[in-house]
Prior knowledge:
Elements: H1 5-22, H2 41-56, H3 75-88, H4 96-109, H5 112-124, E1 129-132, E2 148-152, E3 155-163, E4 173-179, E5 191-197, E6 203-208, E7 217-228, E8 232-233, H6 239-250, H7 268-277, E9 279-280, E10 283-284, H8 289-306, H9 308-312, H10 315-318, H11 324-347, H12 365-376, H13 383-394
Parallel strand pairs: 1-4
Antiparallel strand pairs: 2-3, 3-7, 4-5, 5-8, 6-7, 9-10
Amino acid sequence: MSVTKAELKEFEQQADHWFAENKPATPDFILPETFMEVGTDQQFEYLRDWQNKVYEAGYVGMAWPEEYGGGGVDQAFQDIATRTMAKHRVPFLPNTIGLNWAGPLILHMGTEAEKQKYIKGILSAEDIWCQGFSEPDHGSDLGSAQCRAVKDGDEYVINGSKIWTSLGSYAKYMILLARTATGGPNKYAGLSFFLAPMDAQGVEPRPIKKLTGEYGFCQTFFNDARIPASSLMGKEGEGWKVAMTTLTFERGAVGGQAGGLSMMDLSINDIVELARRAKRNGRPAIEDPHVRGQLVDLITESRSNALMATRSNVPALASDWPTAVSMSGKLRSSELKRRMCQFAISLQGANGARYVSSEAVDGGMWQRSYLNAFSGTIGGGTSQIQHNIIGERVLGLPK
């Protein structure tokens, strides 16, 4: 069923009014920038309540099937709702892994029973999800995962650990990659994929203190943890295929995500405003030719990224490298965020060294954002891995 411009315009006005009227008051505690910094019960409950309110109002999961709790409408409506959230700078939706990775995966590859069981709880934030891919001893070599899953009747017994499990302390479920066999034709053959409950006895998430002093990451230990055999997604030994499909959602290479903001993003407009306030030789920094040159470069790159989705739909602009936009999205956005924050700190001169001081510029927001930005260049595949992916899968270079 086609959607008219008039219908979209009317919906945009409705969404604009709703978010203007319902934007929550700023709390008396620091809000995290992304789900990777949610480290206190106050932060978590505030953000979960907000996601539930957005869902009950019908502004997240709008394009997901109605029979599983979604809105069942055209994706264009969700795109408008998400842009409106960004316009009003409302809080992000904390169930990032559920909304953007686990949920799309279940809708794409899951059984009917799995869709009925998991999707609505993902949207409402009743069921928070975390990810169990990385391990302490293997870095980016995901295929060498050693966390073991041994079948025992109607259960699997899990032993090992996973690291960087954001929201691990609050999650009800984990998308878990574990080894069910060894000695196959390659290291990927013995891996299996599970939708694992986090409340099983023997599952212990331990929060990790970050460089910023915040928490949010965990190392999750499995000590003879028993999970139902029905937690297996697909067949034993097919975990690598499922994990790679998950990563296409995580990296934004394919669509199907539920929508909503996944972070409190500092925009290029914030950098411009800071450049007006900062001083160079007694004058606004924005008047300095060198600063202006750097600022124009960042503005150009930011606008280019924002227009990439439109560009990918123009054959004349996308025919030479048709997968370049989708494959490069994660790399472009995470590296730009890091460099923008670095530039913002440089604008502060000697004040840029102040982070926790009461005299820190904007309460140390830029320093905190800069340090946190590195997690974006690591999670979902490091920037180095992303360069390799683009070289091999877009440019056709040899491994």
